[in-house]
Amino acid sequence: MTVSLPHPASSVVPVILSGGSGSRLWPVSRSAYPKQFWPLVSQRTMVQETALRSHGPGFSAPIVVCNNEHRFIMAEQLREVGITAPRILLEPVGRNSAPAIAAAAVLAAETDPDAVLWIMAADAAMQKPQNVTPALALAAQVARAGRIVTFGMTPMRAETGYGYIEKGAPLAGYDGAFAVERFIEKPDAANAGRMFGSGRFLWNSGMFVFTARTLLQEMEKFEPAVLSAVREAVRERRSDIDFERLDPTAFAASPDISIDYAVAERTDLMTVIPGDFGWSDVGSWDALWELGPQDDAGNVVSGDVVLNNTTNSYVRTDGVLTAVSGVEDLLVVVNEDAVLVTHRQHAQDVKTIVARLKKANRPEATAHRRRYRPWGFYETLIMGTRFQVKRIVVEPGQMLSLQKHYHRAEHWVVVEGTALVTRNEEEILVRENESVYLPLGTTHRLKNPGRIPLTLIEVQSGPYLGEDDIVRLEDVYSRA
């Protein structure tokens, strides 16, 4: 659902931060394709829901900050929901939220130093977006008066997984806004219970509203090293297709610090507006159980699931039939190459499992069998000692790089669509049920000249089949 601002004095600029790996939602969320790119709470992905929440009257085109590896996924997902002119700012390295937000503010200030920015994470849910409109309108007014605003969510329970904000005195002239007394880190159960019962504390949503000018002034005051590095990174940025690449040397010189530590907990301009947005940071599978439609036995299911004598459980499968019987309070998540089963009380422990998988160099920790590329995707079907079988899907009008391999030959069989294949000096049109052979060392390229996706089966053979045996000679997507 889209939020519309009633007759704003000027447009609000949404800033969407798309970082993190979402390891607590493994095995679906992995660093190569994290949770913001998955449809977890609706038919749209998390980042699509976030972008649509700030799209329409009263809003400018969004500034999206993400890393280089996710740039084409981000652009495509935004395009799918009609966000056609985003400014996608690419971080060369992760430096936490303060440098990312400062970069967005510097970029916005080039056009309008007094632009009002609404900072949002790409992977949070809001089930009551109608309540956002009045709160955001008030926040924009307070921000134009030179203050920094955050939204505090009305707590539903004594939650230990969120940080808290203590409300201070009401802000004169702005009914519904309060000074911030203090921020509190994630508490233990006893302190969470006391704060919940007091009525003075709100969940910290991590959303902020301020003008670019105000944020940059406060960054200059508290973290000048961050601002200096970020200003240079923005000034020396390079445009690349639909993306703006921050200068890697300058950005890497920035200290690694969150916006909370850099500004929010130090400034005397901090303001909180309480709200009931149906907000969740979707930080665990248990959160998705809470957000989902529960049946009469308290179960939430997604995919091809059969339950028997099961209560208060979350069961998700992205393919294979999953049957669960005689259990309660379980989380069961079935992916194409991994299965997670845990008690709901231990939902936060999933990140420990991911850490162990990474330590063991297991590929399942970071990537799926399906690997997304700017031209489409591929997935491994069979892996042998000297051969590998993949399914490759190329979107209409897209093409792979012009490349060659030193250790493998390839055989392509088209099963849907039409392929235009470059093989050394010749171009070959390969139709459905036709194939082409590419001997070791052959310079080759694959293009989809048609209007439907091109699907082919690739059979690789040779002594080494790693992805790093790709020598790119030419690439329209500026990959090395």
TrEMBL record:
InterPro entries referenced in this protein's UniProt entry, alphabetically: GMPP_N, Man1P_GuaTrfase/Man6P_Isoase, Man6P_isomerase-2_C, ManC/GMP-like_b-helix, Mannose-6P_isomerase_type2, NTP_transferase_dom, Nucleotide-diphossugar_trans, RmlC-like_jellyroll
Record field: catalytic activity: alpha-D-mannose 1-phosphate + GTP + H(+) = GDP-alpha-D-mannose + diphosphate
GTP-binding listed as a keyword: yes
Enzyme Commission numbers on file: 2.7.7.13
Domain Mannose-6-phosphate isomerase type II C-terminal: 361-475
Alphabetically ordered keywords of this record: GTP-binding, Isomerase, Nucleotide-binding, Nucleotidyltransferase, Transferase
UniProt GO molecular function: GTP binding; isomerase activity; mannose-1-phosphate guanylyltransferase (GTP) activity
Domain MannoseP isomerase/GMP-like beta-helix residues, every copy: 303-357
SUPFAM superfamilies on file: Nucleotide-diphospho-sugar transferases (SSF53448), RmlC-like cupins (SSF51182)
Gene Ontology terms describing biological process: GDP-mannose biosynthetic process; polysaccharide biosynthetic process
Domain Nucleotidyl transferase per the UniProt entry, residue ranges: 14-293
Domain of life: Bacteria
Record family assignment: Belongs to the mannose-6-phosphate isomerase type 2 family.
Designated name of the protein: mannose-1-phosphate guanylyltransferase
Species assigned in the record: Komagataeibacter xylinus
Taxon lineage: Bacteria, Pseudomonadati, Pseudomonadota, Alphaproteobacteria, Acetobacterales
